[in-house]
Structures are given as C-alpha cells and as structure tokens.
Amino acid sequence: MRFGFMEDFRNPVKWRRPFNEFYQQILEQIKTCEQIGYDNVWLTEHHFTEDGYNPSLMTTAAGVATVTKQIRIGTFIVILPYQHPVLLAEEVANVDILSNGRFELGVGQGYSYHEYKAFCMERSERGPKTRESIQLIERLFNEEKVTHNGKFFQTRDAKLSPKPVQTPHPPIWIGGRGPKAVKKAAQMGYHLMATIGPDPAPDYISALEESGKNPVDYKIAQLRMVYCAESEDQAWDECQEHLFHLIEFYHDILSEANDADGDDAPLPISKPEDMRNSVLADHFMIGTPEQVSEKLSQFQIDFTCTDLIMGTQFPGLDPELGTKALKLFGEKVMPKFKN
Length: 339
Known about the structure:
This protein has helices at about 20-35, 55-65, 85-100, 115-120, 125-140, 180-190, 200-210, 230-255, 290-300, 320-330, 335, and strands at about 1-5, 40-45, 70-75, 80, 105-110, 145-150, 155-160, 170-175, 190-195, 220-230, 285, 305-310. The protein is of the alpha/beta class.
C-alpha cells in the first residue's frame, strides 16, 4: 500500500489566517511529509466556497513541484468539465516537467449543482464531456498532431509541446462514486479514485475483467479521515470541530447530487461533540497510533486499496497540529503497512 495525504488549502472564516501565510505553512507541511516518507500528496478542487477551497490545482501542483524532490504529486481530482482539455494537457506536461516525472493526473466529472450553475454549464452533460475530454488529452499525449471534431471540443492539428517526462504519459486516474462512473473508468482503462462510502472496488474489478484487463495492472485509491495523537482524547479534542466543518460541507453538496447510495441520508449528528460516539466514527481512523493501526488493519480486510489517501489537515486546523498528526502516523503507523 502506498500512503498519500490530501491538501485542499481550505481556510474557513472562523479560523482564518492570511492566505499567503497559510499557503506557505501547507507547503512546509508537504515538505515535512516528503522527508518522513509519504508517497503522494493529493490536491483537491472545489469552487466558490466561503473557506477558499483550492480552485486551481495545476497552479498549486507546479508550486509543490518546485519545493519538493521525491514525493509524487497528484490531483484528486481536476473537475474536467470545467477545463479545456488542450490547455489542461499542456499544464499537465508542464507540471510533469517541473517535477521531473512525479505527476499523477486524477480527473472526474464533479457533482456540485452550485458549481455547475455558477459556471453556467449543463450538469447533465458532465459524463460525456468528461469522457471526451480525457480521451482527447490522452491523444495529445500520444500523438504528434491531433485533429478532433467532438460534441464539446474541436481541434485542428493540435500539437502538445513540450511532452511530459513520463512516457507515454503520467498515470491517469478517474474519480468515481456511482456504479456507472466506476464501470466507465474500468472500461476506459484508468486507475480508480474512491471517496468515503460504499466500496466501488468490486464493481471496478469486475468491469476490468469483463473488459479483458488484468486488475493487477490497475490501482485503487481510497480516501479516509485519519488523525493521530498521543491519546484518543487529544486526537478528538484537536480535530473534531474541523472535521465537523468538513462533514457539513460534503453532506450539503453530496445530498443534493445524490450520485451514490446513501448520499441523501440525513447527517446523524448535530454538533462536533457527537461524532466520537456516532456511526460516523466507524469510518474514521482517529486516536492513538495503536488504535489507528488496528482500524487500518481492519480497513485492509474490508476494502481493496492500493493507495490510501488520508484527510488529516482538516479545514481550519492549525497546520502545526496537522503536521504533528501526519508525522506521528508516518513514524508509528505507516512503517507497519508500507510495502
């Protein structure tokens, strides 16, 4: 199992720090995690939020590339329907060059009604638009000149120059929550990125096999909320308010999207203090290194996962505390499971 962590650069009003200082703190956190031995940093995207959720992943990825040397840099995810695929392919090549071949491209179709309305885009077209985009991007990576006459995009003798360092191109991941998206990811031959919820891996693996592909050749990333401290009380005390902010945000947009089973279920808690003794806690890995190790062992039994993506730097959390939690996990938990 490879270990990565998510960075969304969220800076809620309640705990707001100057954005320039906050961004530098998160870059320092990433550098520390690289030294500890984490495999990946994953950047995640949303738009028009009050807490400054990172809207510009490729710019951020370039910034991370220039201050690191070994850790792989990925997007979890670029929302493809918002992007022009030719420009995105050029940005991917640029970041792969700046990082000397350390970039991984995770893409998806998005789900927020609010974002689609703000962009004046048809949400109903997100699936086919995403598929057309990623296929055009892959052609630009692989072919000398690309002429494309699609429903959403057209190009004439488009040439990607320069090309990425990795050949034929950086690894491509598809974020999938609903059964249709998961099956399409397998049929198109891309790695799978999953979030919290029902495990999509069985459907993905079955679709790979039905498409004549060997599942061993494909990776499955799973997202989990993880927070380590010296005691369980300390872990919850430090993170619960910030984790609650995160849960409320996703509950609002996922319940409206209703893309996967359980999305529209009511939130089983009303305040941060409720989380520790709620059903939600079963899906988190929060506590001492020993407790987190036990939960991670059970997670490996229950879920298929080649790449764990950890949410630890919760919105508004002091980056020093987030770095301390990531360091404790990296030193006390990660060595037990790596490779």
